[in-house]
Amino acid sequence: MLATASQLVLRNIDDLRGKVLIVEPMADNLATELLHLAPELELSCYSTDAGAAQSWSHPAVQLYADVSPQFSATFDTVVLFYPKSKEQLTFTLAQLKPALSATTAVFVTGDNKGGIKSLSSHAQKLGLNANKLDNAKHCLWFALHGDFQQLPQAKAASFSIDAAGEKLTLHSLPGVFNHGKLDVGTALLLDNLPEVHQGKVLDFACGCGVIGAMLKRKHPAIELFSSDISSLAVKATELTLAANNLTGAVVAADGLPATPKQFDCIVSNPPFHTGIKTDYSIVDAFISQSAARLSSNGSLTIVANSHLSYLELLQQAFKKVTVKAKANGFVVYRATNQS
User: Which structural domains are found in the chain, ordered by start?
Assistant: First the structure.
């Protein structure tokens, strides 16, 4: 199964030559298709998404999954999947500078609804030129030209919050949820965190790490674990914990992390999008996995947009579900298996 943007890559496969780097692709079968249709290409992949990285984990593919990849050489062709934000596009292009030579052909693909229509104007602001080469399957295919080496190196954003009676310094990177600010839903969650004084606590889909940091600040005896599908979020959370002299294990994981086997508390502002589409399967799997991985006295606390049908999903997996707070279009739910 291929995403439409991946299908556009195959449609323009003749543009690919030599050593090819695929950047931030979708979690689909594009790697398998390219290896089959163009075995002469030398494929590499750079992905900060654990799910996409897993789909590109192949003996014939060189995989780069670190936020700041150490590229061993430059590439003949680079194909960049248009990211969620212009800030992330700028950040990713800056990370790619060591992989680009004066002769590297750079292409960008993406869904029309994902923001790629504005690529030409954004490229001009970066001192680059974007030429549209193809338009099919509700996606666009651009060639990107210019001096990529003049792009400024992107840095983490640092900002402070005063919430739930605590002051925290937060760090964020482009591409991390609500980059550079505290979103309304998480703010409501911070004011309604569970009283958990010890045990193993997971901040799932940790983003910049604010939820886990707040829990650790309020309850220093807990054993904190933070996870996110994005290595950008993992890096941001590591920076946030360090900035506040807090400790915790931070891992990149597609779904709940494999270890520890059991948690005493899970807290999250969980994602509900795959790309630009609402996808209940993500939260459904997360809730089911949480119910199976919580201790007998454990609890799951999440915040969600009030229009999303999370209550029914929680009630299917847990014996008891309560609404802890409602405000500004968000709801905080707490679920346990205690009657």
Answer: 4-150 (3.40.50.150), 157-336 (3.40.50.150)
